[in-house]
């Protein structure tokens, strides 16, 4: 058990447990758990992570599937890695809803945030996302001469 004087650790463990429930094939339990967690969290980046995960569990309700990640984005703060993940979620939702314009906008913002994060792993993952094939087909990822980061280049 998590000591009562460590609420952030308890929330992180709760979030991890919800993820495991999803992976174990029980999305209803994961959704209920996340809804309970979100209800008791203050707005902010940590809650944005829970909202982002919860958004994936609203596949049966496109309105909620869009509203929940948009709320996550509003609470994410200025963490480009976090906002990149949320924008990629929104890209997927807009694709499924058939709104190509919004999907493309979300994909472009996700890539911009991933690049701004400076995280090579996130950039590499981003370059493999389907969004890149549709929003930016003429661009490719290149490694800067320093080898420290990946960046976009137009060809």
What would you say this structure looks like, in words?
The chain is mainly alpha-helical and 155 residues long. Helices cover 68% and strands 6% of the residues. It is built from eight helices and two strands. The chain has helices at residues 7-23, 27-39, 45-56, 62-75, 80-97, 100-117, 120-127, 130-135, and strands at 139-143, 150-154. The chain has a two-stranded antiparallel ribbon with strand order 1-2. Strand 1 (139-143) and strand 2 form a beta hairpin. The termini are far apart. The relative contact order is 0.08. Residues 137-155 have low confidence and may be disordered.
Please outline the helices and strands.
Elements: H1 7-23, H2 27-39, H3 45-56, H4 62-75, H5 80-97, H6 100-117, H7 120-127, H8 130-135, E1 139-143, E2 150-154
Antiparallel strand pairs: 1-2
């Amino acid at each position: 058990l998590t000591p009562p004087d460590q609420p952030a650790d308890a929330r992180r463990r709760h979030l991890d447990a919800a993820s495991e429930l999803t992976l174990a094939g029980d999305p209803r339990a994961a959704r209920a758990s996340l809804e309970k967690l979100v209800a008791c969290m203050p707005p902010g980046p940590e809650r944005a992570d829970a909202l982002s995960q919860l958004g994936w569990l609203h596949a049966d309700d496109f309105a909620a599937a869009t509203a929940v990640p948009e709320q996550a984005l509003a609470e994410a703060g200025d963490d480009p890695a976090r906002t990149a993940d949320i924008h990629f979620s929104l890209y997927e939702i807009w694709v499924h809803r058939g709104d190509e314009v919004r999907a493309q906008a979300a994909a472009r913002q996700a890539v911009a945030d991933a690049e701004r994060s400076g995280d090579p792993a996130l950039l590499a993952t981003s370059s493999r996302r389907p969004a890149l094939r549709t929003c930016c087909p003429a661009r490719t990822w290149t490694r800067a001469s320093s080898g420290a980061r990946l960046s976009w280049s137009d060809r």
